[in-house]
Amino acid sequence: MIMDKHTKELVDRGEMLPLMEEFYTIQGEGYHKGTAAYFIRVGGCDVGCHWCDVKESWNAALHPPTHYLQIADNAATYSDTIVITGGEPLMWNMNPLTKALKEKGLKVHIETSGAYTLTGHWDWICLSPKKNKLPLDEVYQKAKELKMIIYNKDDFRFAEEQASKVGKECILYLQPEWSKREKMIPMIVDYVMKNPKWKVSLQTHKYLNIP
Ligand code: SF4
Q1: Do 91 and 116 touch, CB atoms closer than 8 A?
Q2: Of 42, 106, 158, 160, whose CB has the highest number of CB atoms within 10 Å?
Q3: Which of 40, 46, 49 to mutate to test ligand 1, by most ligand atoms within 8 A of the CB atom?
Q4: Helix (H, G, I), strand (E, B) or coil at 161
């Protein structure tokens, strides 16, 4: 999609966002697993995880710039818990959308790799660092949960390295990458029993066959 100058200015200010999809479902992962929430998936990501299950999100130009007030008004009709995900939502200025959601009294969560400046007003930050593009220092201390995706054995080492950077209260999760789950789940179970500061997170929405 080719953007006119005015739209580009609004996107640059976070007043329009490339909206890929939005849906009301059950949060499947991490601390809020099992909780109904409205998901807003913002397009655009250049982190490039080879196992990414939302590669359609990468090219922001494929997703229509949508005004933040329209997104907020719509989200508020579904749930009092809103999860902003991507893509990598922090590629955009999240201040306008999160401010509008907070003004409606909603709880606002983000799922991020932390690779971009932290904008926005958040009740919950789920940080999921990726080796390709590490989180910025400012994000580590603000994370409420650290969700490490385990694709291979080296990811346990990476998980420990990343856990050493978050705050003491941050809840630590190891989550098998979906295509490797049969191989990695026994290793994760064993690892968590030996290192109980970690908890297991599964993509339960995939087992439930919901988005
Ligand atoms: S950071 Fe997330 S959206 Fe971006 S490539 Fe990695 S898994 Fe996909």
Answers
A1: yes
A2: 42
A3: 49
A4: helix
CA distance 138 to 80: 27
Closest CA to 186 of 146, 153, 209, 148: 153
pTM: 0.97
The residues near 189 (Cβ < 8 Å, ≥ 6 apart) are 200
The DSSP bridge pattern shows strands 65-67 and 16-26 to be: antiparallel
Query: Per DSSP, what are the bridge partners of residue 198?
Result: 172
> Residue 150's closest CA among 127, 129, 134, 174?
174
Q: What separation in Å is there between the alpha carbon of 137 and the centre of ligand 1?
A: 19
For residue 192 the two structure tokens come to: 């968590």
Residue holding tokens 């003004």? 103
Q: Using a 6 Å cutoff on CB, does residue 126 contact ligand 1?
A: no
Q: How far is the CA of 179 from the centre of ligand 1 (A)?
A: 15
Quick one: what percent of the chain has pLDDT higher than 70? 100
62-101 pLDDT tens trace: 999 999 999 999 999 999 999 999 999 999 999 999 999 9
The count of residues in the chain is 211
